[in-house]
Design brief:
- The chain is mainly α and 303 residues long.
- The chain has 11 helices and no strands.
- About 2% of the residues have low confidence.
Length: 303
Amino acid sequence: MTELISVFSQTPWLFVTLSFIFAAVIGSFLNVVIHRMPVMMKREWQQECNHYLSEYKPDVFNKSKQQLEQPIDPFPEKYNLVVPGSACPKCKTNIKAIHNLPILGWLMLKGKCSACGTSISARYPIVELVTGCLIAFLAWHFGPTLEFALSSLLTFCLIALTGIDLDEMLLPDQITLPLLWLGLIINFNGVFTSLPDALIGAVAGYLSLWSVFWLFKLLTGKEGMGYGDFKLLAVFGAWLGWQVLPVIILLSSLVGAVVGITLIVVKKLNQGNPIPFGPYIAAAGWIAMIWGESIINWYISTL
């Protein structure tokens, strides 16, 4: 391992190139996570509801016992991040291994199913390309270090969270909570910040948006954001320390406001309709991970 790290240190272009290829492959898997994890969660919720309803007495719902014992929406087939294999959603034709190649597979198919000609969303190669580019940049920025490995893992998770939030307005605890604990663990030895700063950051990150949430709700009677947003900001506090939280909040709010106003102007969004805030927190946090200290120093120098 030491020799390999030495080779990568001496030939950074090789490390960056291999990082891009590896990340593009992971990006292909992230597409699966973005699509399937919400489905898996909904199925789990449905099964829990079925089990819960089956505990009630039949006369409560004016149904026979036999009716209550029948599941509302059974899921006999196995469904997870691995099974079933990739297939066309329309004709169910399995996608060949060569067509699963990141970016190139979509280009070879010209964005269409080889069997029925159904269009394949351009989001798949975009996610793969963005993942590859971001990790390649981290490889160039950090080099073959522990910081590169950990920041890459965080980036993979942020991409998955962004895609899921855009589709479902949901930030799964299955991703955010492990990231929160991991941030505290890795900073036990001060990888990105000190442990006290990480602990304060996790608490402050959660409570800052939690306070805004309840203040907005008390004033308007509406919920302005979801609890997943609190947890995601807590993740960045745990990874990077409390000092970067103002930068993340400012950048995410600014970008979110600009995007929201733009969508309203072009009539892509009606006033009052919710928009996911997680992607803006994720983008701002990633920027803070790279340039947070420089941004803070620049701001202090302007005072």
